[in-house]
Specification:
The protein contains one helix and nine strands.
């Protein structure tokens, strides 16, 4: 539960920060950037709080896309979120390889360990 993910300090609940490594700067980069690839059961959804059913599925930004790559190490961090390089991908015409399509995007995720209910609540409250 959410309470299991929080620790107490001075009687107040404290968030537990995830462990992560910041992405190397270009000058330190060896060209090999580790990423996570998602291609099975991937879809894009849009939230509209004014609708009876607020979540609806929408297509990818690049219509040929069928998945995404997201770099494992964040390139930036703020007070609450980590920022990752994010790419839509499609399968190449020949062979099992994949290629990036469209522009580089940014994906954000909480710096802190959260349960799935907290993630959805963030979107319904703030997005």
């Amino acid at each position: 539960t959410r309470n299991d993910l929080l620790s107490k300090k001075d009687g107040k609940q404290q968030k537990t920060e995830k462990s992560y490594t910041m992405r190397k700067k270009k000058s330190e980069d060896d060209g090999l950037v580790p990423f996570r690839r998602e291609i099975n059961g991937v879809s894009r959804w849009l939230y509209d709080q004014n609708k009876k059913y607020p979540w609806r599925e929408v297509g990818f930004i690049n219509r040929d896309s069928s998945g995404f790559d997201i770099e494992q190490d964040p390139f930036g961090k703020g007070a609450e979120r980590l920022a990752y390089m994010f790419y839509e991908i499609k399968q190449k015409i020949k062979g099992p390889a994949w290629e990036q399509v469209g522009k580089v995007m940014v994906a954000k995720e909480s710096r802190y360990i959260e349960d799935e209910e907290s993630k959805e609540k963030f979107h319904t409250d703030f997005c």
